[in-house]
Amino acid sequence: MVKPINFVRSMILRSVADHPTDLVTHTARTFGMTRMGAHKHVARLVAEGQLVKQGRAKGTRYELAKIAERMGVVDITPETQDDTVWTEVIEPLLAGIPENVRYICYYGFTEMFNNVIDHSESDRCLYHLVRTPVSITFTIHDYGVGIFDKIAKHFNLSSRRHAILELSKGKLTSFPERHSGEGIFFTSRMFDNFVLLSQDLFYQRKREENAEWLIESDESKNWQEGTVVRMSIAANTTRKANDVFLEHMDDDAGFSRTHVPMTLAKLGEGSFVSRSQAKRVLARFEKFSEVFLDFRNVDEIGQAFADEIFRVYAKSHPGTQIVYVNANPDVERMIQHAKRNAADG
Fold first, then answer.
1. 267: closest CA among 160, 184, 147, 156?
2. Which residues span the domain enclosing 28?
3. Do residues 204 and 308 both lie within one domain?
4. In this structure, are residues 155 and 163 in contact, taking their beta carbons and an 8 Å threshold?
5. In principle, which of 72, 113, 302, 332 could form an S-S bond with 273, CB 3.0–4.6 Å?
6. In this structure, are 202 and 266 located in the same domain?
7. What is the C-alpha separation between 335 and 206, in angstroms, rounded?
């Protein structure tokens, strides 16, 4: 079946990041066409200014053209406003994008910039926008205390890794007079890719996979001063900010549902076995009416760990429903054992 030309070219644009040196070959293989036919599509995108070609023959590389790019540094003072850079610099460079994408960009950029103003203790902030035919990417970098250190110290948590676990739940803020603790939670779910980098910790969330990762570097040369936020979104996404809000709200329009990736709860320990580990996971669950525990990439859990969550806590907190997902057979067996004990009284 012959694919429409616009579909083929859209897929080429989406593939170039992963296939910069074999884009023509990849296109021909993907759509079952000749190399000549694939080359015509790629050449057309170059002629239209959507792709950039570098080199010749076997040294040819392709990359997405930049429709717009802007980088700048803002001094952070008591008078700094989170929407000034957006209104004066960023928004004009996003002319022509769909309104739903524009609003998500506005929400994410201003929320993250406001975090710099109110939380980072930094005297300056670097921002960077890159707009291509397929995506919009923001980077916001402050040079302050670091987001994970700030949270760990303010809430007296055991480590900066523990701070990431709490941050992923949402409703966490060190400045409740000015913030609801929802900005990072919702921004990370509106954008296709969301990254937080501070010192030796790298946290990433990908919406398509509904997955979150934490990477730790032992090399001090890789440490990042302050905090870097990087977020990107497809320029043609149909996603709406309101849809993301509704995924986590109840009928009273309150933020009531959260998703907790259990891999973030390991904190260096090999497996989930103790009640103290379970209590760390359960912290602040009473703020939500529904919590989804995601056991993806968790091989096993211990009896005490499962019992603390699915029997002890479940019985003492009937207002919070705990739902588990992505459990393998071994984890499932232990959870069901705890639930049966709860049912038996």
1. 160
2. 5-64
3. no
4. yes
5. 302
6. no
7. 27
